[in-house]
Amino acid sequence: MQFHGLIHTFPKHVKNFIAAFVVVLSIGYGSGLLFVGQTNSHQPQGMEENYLGNEDQEDAEVMKFKKGEREMLTILHTHILSISFIFFLLGGLVAITSLPKKLKAFLMIEPFFSIIITFGGIYLLWNGMLWMKWIVMFSGIVMTVVFLLSVMAVLIQLYKRK
């Protein structure tokens, strides 16, 4: 079966359905990024404090404690599973666009590496490898950029004439 460019053949109501899904998915992803901003995990020091605590700092605005193992495993488990599904669904939509095949392959596969690096890095950070905060930040940024590129590609391809 030929997937390349299949998105262009869908009827308008199916294209609108896909567009609505991608927009709502983007709102959900964006709200997750807002949450990261609320926890100050978008900054290296904030990420470290979010997982390792800051109870040793007397002047801390918000007191944070090191997350327990059960809480960390829950965070990692839920994020890895849910974000994998997000990128599986979005990758499936990218697969049926008429983008160049190498670009499609990158947009479809890269997020899964970023998921493992980001959340594996968070686990290693929690275990005391403090330099992992830089790797986590970089891989999280890459994951978000790929998400945005994929969303834009799908939305543009939905209404582009072949």
Determine the fraction of residues in helical runs and give it as a percent range. Answer: over 70%
Overall strand count: 0
Low-pLDDT stretches are none
Taking all Cα atoms into account, the compactness measure Rg is: 19 Å
Number of domains: 1
Instruction: Output mean pLDDT.
Output: 93
Described by the principal axes of the CA atoms, the overall outline is elongated
Please report the distance between the alpha carbons of the first and last residues: 18 Å
Can you write the helix and strand succession as a string? HHHHH
What portion of the residues fall into strands of 2 or more residues?
under 5%
Q: How many helical elements?
A: 5
Structural class determined from secondary elements: mainly alpha
The description of the largest β-sheet is: none
Structure commentary:
By secondary structure, the protein is an all-alpha fold. It has one domain (6-53, 64-159). The protein has 5 helices and no strands. The longest helix has 28 residues, at 132-159. It starts with 11 loop residues before the first helix and ends with a helix. 23% of the residues are buried. The mean pLDDT is 93.
